[in-house]
Amino acid sequence: MRTRDRTCSGFSLIEIIAVLVLSSLALVFAAMLLVTSTGIFISNKEAAEDSQKIQAAMNRLVKELTYAGSGTVVVSNGRTVQWTSNHPERFGDAQTATWDGATGSNLTLQGAILLDNVDLFAVSSTADTVTISMRSANSNGVTHSTIVHPRYDP
């Protein structure tokens, strides 16, 4: 009968199972890291897109309100602003920007959607300034604000 020499090389079943368990744990943690990183990337990308949309809407309102006639800006209920335009292409036309106050609804300018998914649109005015604040429902509470000085007098 042959006896087995204990100096033979090879892996035991326990060693193989231990390596598989440790490798599996490492892969699970790597997958969790990948999923978390991807989620953060996507949410940051969406926040950047929302910020760009808000900035474009804000720029449009600033441009329009800059051409507001002297003393024609009227703010009602803090969510609607009306003015008479002195823009060369819309001279004397009444302009309106409004939001109905419901989270996720649209901000409109002359009935056309200027910004969708709005969480906040607040307007206030003094004799020579208009203050606008906007926030998207997806912007994680970041509010964009600006002050406009209507300066066009024909």
Written account of the structure:
The chain has 154 residues and is α+β, with helices and mostly antiparallel strands. The chain has one domain (13-148). Helices cover 35% and strands 29% of the residues. It is built from 1 helix and 7 strands, in the order H-E-E-E-E-E-E-E. A 7-stranded antiparallel beta sheet has the order 1-2-3-4-5-6-7, with helices on one face. A hairpin with a 2-residue loop joins strand 4 (105-109) and strand 5 (112-125). It is rod-shaped, with a radius of gyration of 30 Å. The termini are far apart. The mean pLDDT is 87.
Provide the descriptors you would attach to this structure in a database record.
about 150 residues; alpha+beta; 7-stranded antiparallel sheet; 1 helix; 7 strands; membrane; transmembrane; transmembrane helix
Chart the SSEs and their pairings.
Blueprint: H1 13-66, E1 74-76, E2 80-84, E3 94-99, E4 105-109, E5 112-125, E6 130-136, E7 144-148
Antiparallel strand pairs: 1-2, 2-3, 3-4, 4-5, 5-6, 6-7
Total count of domains:
1
Strand order of the largest sheet: 1-2-3-4-5-6-7
Helix content: 25-40%
Shape: rod-shaped
Distance between the termini: 115 Å
Number of strands: 7
SSE run? HEEEEEEE
Task: Outline the biggest β-sheet.
Answer: 7 strands, antiparallel
Mean pLDDT over the residues: 87
Low-confidence stretches: none
In brief:
The protein has 154 residues and is of the alpha+beta class. It contains one helix and seven strands.
